[in-house]
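quick one
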Amino acid sequence: MTQEKLRIGLFGYGCVGQGLHDVLNSSNGFKADIVKICVKDRSKKRRIPMSFFTFDKDEILNDDSINLVVELIDDADEAFKIVTTAMKRGKNVVTANKMMVAKHFRELVELQQKYNVSLLYEASAGASIPIIRNLEEYYDNELLYSLRGILNGTTNYILTKMHNSGLPYHEALKEAQEKGFAESDPTLDVEGWDAKYKLCIITGHAYGLFLDPDLVFHYGINTISKFDIQYAKEKGYKIKLVPYVGKTNDNTITSFVLPRFISSDKYLYNVDNEYNGVITEAAFADKQFFSGKGAGGHATGSAVLSDISANSYGYRYEYKKYRQGTVSHYSRDYNLEVYLRYNDEKDRDLFGFREISEYFSSRSYKYVIGIVNLERLYSLKEQLRNMDVFIVNTGRKVSVH
Ligand SMILES: NC(=O)c1ccc[n+]([C@@H]2O[C@H](COP(=O)([O-])OP(=O)(O)OC[C@H]3O[C@@H](n4cnc5c(N)ncnc54)[C@H](OP(=O)(O)O)[C@@H]3O)[C@@H](O)[C@H]2O)c1
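structure w/ NAP:
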């Protein structure tokens, strides 16, 4: 069978755009040409001839000979305009932009149907780990109990340096920035937004619910202190930022992003630095573990290439679980056991702890371990930004409901 040669219009030639270019050049036998690249900054030096580049998005969007748009820019609002225009003009699209997909998930799914085009975004969650297509094709939602993992390379790098080298948070963050693992504005990563966007995309394919990210509780690592690392080490744990989604009953799921204690016998314990890892738990398959690089031009570019290749044989997400609608409810009425390090007793009282199992108070720090309700955490989300506290999910099963 002869396959029509793919003519790609690429948006963005930064870390992932260049990574994709290298990966594509190294892939023998795959027929695809990047015919035009749209970028933003006219003064930047490029490593390939300027004749490949344009600064006008319409040069790609209006070119009928371009049959695939690959969107790899770092601006979610502009990306949404590019991606939706391309789809409305009948072009298939591949993107790595998690914020854009998560914020407009339902609309993007509807546009695919309306204009009979495909939008693939494997690189948007877990970068090189092929989790979206696996969830889409492999797991039945009735039998998938839960999914959790490490989905943010920046925070994992920082936590690894804090744990292994004893670096304070700000030094570990600085090192991550110097090595290119963290943006100059790291807010989206360290506050847990990035992990939440990825979790919402994964939830769409794991359970068929397109959640508004605003409904999902997230908490990051930006208030972590040496006391928290010290406590974790004494108990033989590492702290990792772990997004979770799971069933609470047959047709309901819950989800959240929280730091979590991980003991040395757990898969995620050895997922360090910029690596990501995902654990699925299903009725019959039991526990499965995926691991791989969660950032970087070549690793992410490899997932983008995989989508380009899938597109070339007509693959598209069918959103079967959404259509089946077996899971129809989202709930934050969920109890979990957390460690709370705090300073002020008034702050602690806001959490409404039940069944306190550990309590410690010294001049330098205090902590409590007990059961809290996710709805209560969610109701505190604005206040938490200014509180001198750090929350970690202990990961222990809770029997109180
Ligand atoms: N880096 C990773 O490891 C990674 C992993 C997974 C997913 N992603 C996602 O991949 C996407 C790209 O990330 P990146 O790290 O490659 O970003 P980056 O290195 O900052 O590069 C961004 C590129 O987008 C271009 N750009 C920005 N606004 C534009 C506009 N309005 N029109 C045309 N081009 C525009 C920039 O142009 P100039 O070159 O002219 O500045 C630059 O080439 C993001 O959505 C990111 O979340 C990244």
